[in-house]
Amino acid sequence: MNLSKLKFGLIGLSSAFLFANCSSPKTEETTEIEVVEDVKTPTLTKLWETDTTLTTNESVLFDEASGKIYVSNIEGDPRGKDGKGSISILDKEGNIVTQEWVTGLDAPKGMGIANGNFYVTDIDQLVEVNLESGKISKRYPVEGAGFLNDLATNDGKVYFTDMNTGKVHMLDAGKISTVTEGHESINGIAVAEDGMLYGLDKSGLKMLHTDGTSMILNKTVTGGDGLVILGDGNYIASRWAGEIYFVNEQGETLLLDTKDAESNTADIGFIPGDNIVLVPTFFKNKVVAYKLDY
């Protein structure tokens, strides 16, 4: 037997086998799975409404510390200095606990609590009320004010808007100053946990910077009245005529439209733990509560 030929033949077979294995890689079938994200549509479901004794109610404020709901009642002309305005207190079920907790106001609108005091805007002045007694303790006239409206508090500071002048003012340590201006018909205002200001004016929902600049977040909800910051880039905004919107970076969803019923949606309030939107109906003289699902 020729061993050299046999050795060469075995080497040739091995090389051919190795080449065949390398040139024919094993293939595996893959299946693509399309993931469809379920996008939930935000909704409002009516829970309750109060009696119709909250005359021309403009704003609603929920106080987490006490569980009370405060309602500002103009009881007349929104610009009239007639001394008829008042603040009422509700419980979380919509019962009127105190019809006239604060009296002697003209046309009260936005409300807030800071430093153990209750604050409310009243045409051209900011009114301070003792939180325990409901008695007016101080009035802060605002120079050049035309139509003070919404109010928000954060870290002991009180921020409030003037629709006529397009300004946002601040009460801090007993002194009033202008934080930002140039916001036509600004009304609704809210402050995030980080202290950032947000407002609703003729151009839409805006982030307001203290250097006077601003950034528009939504151009659809123009001329808004009440503003609630839900967090994670979500907001609720109302228009006085009878519209409430859910707003985020994807756009806006109309949650409620009561224009045909001639029921206004003024400066809304919110109960965060229960996701309840509190709607002052202005000329309908009642507050209506809705459950928010989003």
Key features?
294 residues; 4-stranded antiparallel sheet; Neuraminidase; 6-blade_b-propeller_TolB-like; mainly beta; disordered N terminus; ATP-binding protein; signal
What does this 3D model show about the protein?
InterPro entries: 6-blade_b-propeller_TolB-like (IPR011042). Keywords: Signal. This is ATP-binding protein. The chain is mostly beta strands and 294 residues long. It has a single domain (43-293), classed as TolB, C-terminal domain (Neuraminidase), CATH 2.120.10. Helix content is 7%, strand content 49%. The protein has 1 helix and 24 strands. It has one helix spanning 3-23; strands at 43-49, 57-63, 68-73, 85-90, 96-105, 108-114, 117-122, 125-130, 136-141, 148-154, 157-162, 167-172, 175-180, 189-191, 197-201, 204-208, 214-218, 227-231, 234-239, 243-248, 251-257, 269-271, 276-280, 287-293. The strands form 6 sheets. The protein has a 4-stranded antiparallel sheet with strand order 1-24-23-22, with no helix packed on it. A 4-stranded antiparallel sheet has the order 2-3-4-5, with no helix packed on it. A 4-stranded antiparallel sheet has the order 6-7-8-9, with no helix packed on it. Strand 15 and strand 16 form a beta hairpin. The longest helix is centred in the N-terminal third of the chain and has 21 residues, at 3-23. It is globular and about 80 Å long. The chain starts with a helix and ends with a strand.
Short description:
With 294 residues, the protein is mainly beta.
Question: Which helices and strands occur, and which strands form pairs?
Answer:
Blueprint: H1 3-23, E1 43-49, E2 57-63, E3 68-73, E4 85-90, E5 96-105, E6 108-114, E7 117-122, E8 125-130, E9 136-141, E10 148-154, E11 157-162, E12 167-172, E13 175-180, E14 189-191, E15 197-201, E16 204-208, E17 214-218, E18 227-231, E19 234-239, E20 243-248, E21 251-257, E22 269-271, E23 276-280, E24 287-293
Antiparallel strand pairs: 1-24, 2-3, 3-4, 4-5, 6-7, 7-8, 8-9, 10-11, 11-12, 12-13, 14-15, 15-16, 16-17, 18-19, 19-20, 20-21, 22-23, 23-24
